[in-house]
């Protein structure tokens, strides 16, 4: 029998374009499979540009703290495809994944379909056949025409911060992109909206009114999450919570945790209490989102006592929140910040480096070995230099790490690897610390 990697490689040949947003192919295959999407547990559907994964992590942790069994669907993966499908708290095993992929392949019978669509159909098969209390379903790209947008009536629709990304597929302006994200809103389904630009919030509210979604729960209008004295304070119509700060680092995680809290407090039928929220905020885990690497082969290549941080942020908005966190760390414990970056050719590489101006001491650029769409290290170095940052191109991640060790000698720098989820996956794989 083929393994999952062999099957996934075959799927890439089923459609000429890797990304081709449409629901028609997905609806055809799901109908042929007997509509598994109609038999999955109640769904929390999550769209947005930034913060989706962290919000999913908080939702899962809070629900599991309440004793709920939770399915989770996310993308992309970092090291192994299995990370995308979590069945009642556990990553899907190889045998179950292969069975579902092969069934979807057999029923599709060679018809045009994208890899994301056919693997999402296989995920629906798994979610329908394994019992759970809730399915957290993360949008792959956009929302309106995303392969996940086939669930007719989710428990709630959640939209995290929207910014400019994937303009080739979603539109040239943040307002056009917001229309695509708001495409997950459904008639009569509660909608939870994170803090947004005013123009984005206006678009989402207009889309919600058009489809009669709601009630709406909008950040800074119906609820708010903020940091006070190092703690997370959340307020909505149900009252105030004062709980410990999120386990995930960064000021932006207060808003992401708040989005998850707002969603679960809008769904009293789930029975989530303040104690469950408290535990979930403190226990949530999400790899490659400002993750501190505390052991492993790559860390050992740096000078003793160095810090190694990893983030999958790949657009200017993501870079801003990461740079903000690095700035906060610098205020507490001063160290030279060294940035290692690889970036895809579909991203705004110049915009990515702007938030690090005056913060990073140096940039080392590396290739993206897990994708054919990576910019050359030389081109990425030019983008860093355009932002006023001294940059040096390398042929490999290991070369960049060795160079930092030589250049800083006995100093212990703070090294941040960021710019692509593909690069983040390479780091976790080579470091020997893949997601579990």
Distance between the termini: 25 Å
Structural class: alpha/beta
Indicate the radius of gyration in whole angstroms.
Answer: 21 Å
Superfamily (CATH H level) name of the largest domain: Mur-like, catalytic domain
* Separate helix tally: 15
Average of the residue pLDDT scores = 94
CATH architecture of the largest domain: 3-Layer(aba) Sandwich
Strand order of the largest sheet: 4-3-2-5-1-6-7-8
Cofactor: Mg(2+)
InterPro entries: Folylpolyglutamate_synth, Folylpolyglutamate_synth_CS, Mur-like_cat_sf, Mur_ligase_C_dom_sf, Mur_ligase_cen
GO molecular function, one term: dihydrofolate synthase activity
Keywords: ATP-binding, Ligase, Magnesium, Metal-binding, Nucleotide-binding
General description of the model:
It is a single chain. The chain is an alpha/beta fold and 436 residues long. The chain folds into two domains: 4-283, UDP-N-acetylmuramoyl-L-alanine:D-glutamate ligase (3-Layer(aba) Sandwich); 291-431, Mur ligase, C-terminal domain (Protein-Tyrosine Phosphatase, Chain A, Alpha-Beta Complex), CATH 3.90.190.20. It has helices at residues 4-11, 24-32, 52-65, 94-108, 115-129, 167-170, 174-181, 198-211, 252-265, 274-283, 316-332, 349-353, 377-386, 397-408, 421-431, and strands at residues 43-47, 70-73, 85-87, 90-91, 134-138, 156-159, 191-193, 216-218, 223-228, 231-236, 239-243, 291-293, 307-310, 337-341, 360-365, 391-393, 414-418. Strand 9 (223-228) and strand 10 form a beta hairpin. The longest helix is centred in the last third of the chain and has 17 residues, at 316-332. The radius of gyration is 21 Å and the shape is globular.
